[in-house]
Amino acid sequence: MTIMFNKTPSSAAGDRLPPRVRFTGLSAGHPGRPVLEQLDGEIPALAVTALIGPNGSGKSTLLGVLAGVIRPTAGEVRHSGTRPPAFVPQRGAVGDTLPLTVRQTVEMGRWGERGPWRRLTRRDRTVVDEVMERLGITALAARQLGELSGGQRQRTLMAQGLAQESDLLLLDEPATGLDPEGRERTAALLTELVADGVTLVHATHDMDAARAADTCLLLRDGRLAGQGPPDRLLTPTALAHLWQPV
Ligand SMILES: Nc1ncnc2c1ncn2[C@@H]1O[C@H](COP(=O)(O)OP(=O)(O)OP(=O)(O)O)[C@@H](O)[C@H]1O
C-alpha cells in the first residue's frame, strides 16, 4: 500500500493537467470489514467529481481514503497536489453535544496550519472571517454547534473545510437535507470553488447534483461500476443496474 504526495505538479500552459489523485488496485475498509475492492480511477484536477452509489456502496470509505484518514489495505493512491486534502464529513457524523461555537468550529480549520494550542494569526482570523461570510454564517458565530439547524451545521462544517485552504476539498453529501435554495447555493459554491483553483469531490444521492458534475464515479458494492462524464455515464440503464440488489 502506498500513498504519495507529489510536490511538483507540472502545469505547462496548454497541457492537460495531471489528475489531482490517481488510485490503482485500491482496496480499503474498516476494521474487520473490507469495503473497497481493487479500484482503479482518478480524480481530475480543477473539476467537480460526484461519487454516486447505493447506501453502503463505499462512497464515504473512498472519501476517507482520499482524505488520508483510512489507510488502504492494498494498492496505491498518488496525489499530485501540494497541500493535504480538506475533508467535510456528513453533518450527522459530528456530535451535537460538542461544546463549540460556530466560530470555534470554523477556526479548527486553521489548526493544520497553526496547531491546536497556538494562537491564531491575523491572517488566520481573516481567512475564518472570509469563509464564514462566504457561507452566510457570520451572524451565527457565537451560537453553539448543537443549537443549529441541520443546514446551518452543514454550512459551518463546509466553512471549516474551506478554512483549510486546500486545493482538494472532499465533501460527504454536502447538500443532503438542505432546502432547494440551500442546494442551489451549494451547487453555485462548488462551481465558484473550482474557478478559484480547488478540485472537488462530493458524495451525493442527488442526481441533479451528479449531472452538474464534470465527472462521476459510480460505486456498487465496493467496486467501481463506471467513471466518466455524467451525460455518458448516467443513463437510465446504468442507473437501474447500479441500484439493483447485489
Ligand atoms: N466505522 C465503520 N466500521 C465498520 N464498518 C463501517 C464503518 N463505516 C462504514 N462501514 C461499512 O462500510 C460499508 C460502506 O459504508 P460507506 O459509509 O462507505 O457507504 P456509503 O456509500 O457512503 O453509504 P451511504 O450512502 O449510506 O452514506 C457499509 O457496509 C458500512 O456498513
Automatic annotation (TrEMBL):
Pfam families registered for this protein in UniProt: ABC_tran
Domain ABC transporter: 21-246
Molecular-function GO term, any one: ATP binding
Swiss-Prot/TrEMBL keywords: ATP-binding, Nucleotide-binding, Transport
InterPro entries, per the entry: AAA+_ATPase (IPR003593), ABC_transporter-like_ATP-bd (IPR003439), AztA-like (IPR047748), Metal_Ion_Import_ABC (IPR050153), P-loop_NTPase (IPR027417)
Gene3D superfamilies per UniProt: P-loop containing nucleotide triphosphate hydrolases
Highest taxon of the lineage: Bacteria
Keyword Transmembrane applies: no
Family, per entry: Belongs to the ABC transporter superfamily.
Protein name according to UniProt: Zinc ABC transporter ATP-binding protein AztA
Gene: aztA
